[in-house]
Amino acid sequence: MNFTENGFEILKNFISQEWIGNLIYEINRVGFHKETGGVRNINKKLKIIGEYLASEEFKGKSDSFLPASVRLVRAMLFNKSAESNWYVTWHQDRTVCVSSRFEETGWSIWSVKENMLHVQPPLEVLKNMVTLRIHLDSASNENGCLKVIPNSHTLGILPAEVIANKIASNEIYFCEVDAGDALIMRPLLLHASNKSVAPSNRRVLHFEFSDWPLPEGVYWG
């Protein structure tokens, strides 16, 4: 599958085993509760996240799809495991994090999650964002890998009833990957995941990027 045409693409061997080992070591050292499947703002809780994103390895691997002007919007750690196993219904990622509230056409549905300000931006902002999911473990259909509807990112922001129709009438692609692979996708791509039937660690670093200019004094993340 091709990112430009289909809205997603699997990038093989995106992150080195050395970085995987260092990241897992820090995740385990901090000791995030195993019962917690997701950790928001992971870049503000683990210094090594910023170090990795600033590394020559990351820049070299991502410069073809992340221009120098992009900024990190959100960073999360997900881990399906025996202690924390869940499914995610079909949806689009429609919200972003910003530093402060502002009044501008198309920015709506403001909320606060874990002391971070979230908002739904206009369609033009979402259309140009890039999501990068870096897999620290392998992910398969058995342990709840992401599943997507190819090319669905071109349909705009969809109401629930339209999403249901699209799922019933379109091909579903299971994004099975090896440890070290990455998945690049558009946030508006319809995606979901099943519960794991063979629970094991399925650690994913989820990053969202945008180069959309915000009002003066407002920052991403």
Structure description:
The protein is 23% helix and 28% strand. The protein has 221 residues and is α+β, with helices and mostly antiparallel strands. It has a single domain (3-91, 128-210), classed as Jelly Rolls (Sandwich). Strands 1-11-8-13-3-2 form a 6-stranded antiparallel beta sheet. A hairpin with a 2-residue loop joins β6 and β7. The longest helix has 14 residues, at 17-30. The two termini are 30 Å apart.
Please give a quick description of this structure.
The protein is of the alpha+beta class and 221 residues long. The chain has a single domain (3-91, 128-210), classed as Sandwich (Jelly Rolls), CATH 2.60.120.620. 23% of the residues lie in helices and 28% in strands.
Keyphrases for this structure?
221 residues; alpha+beta; Jelly Rolls; four-stranded antiparallel beta sheet
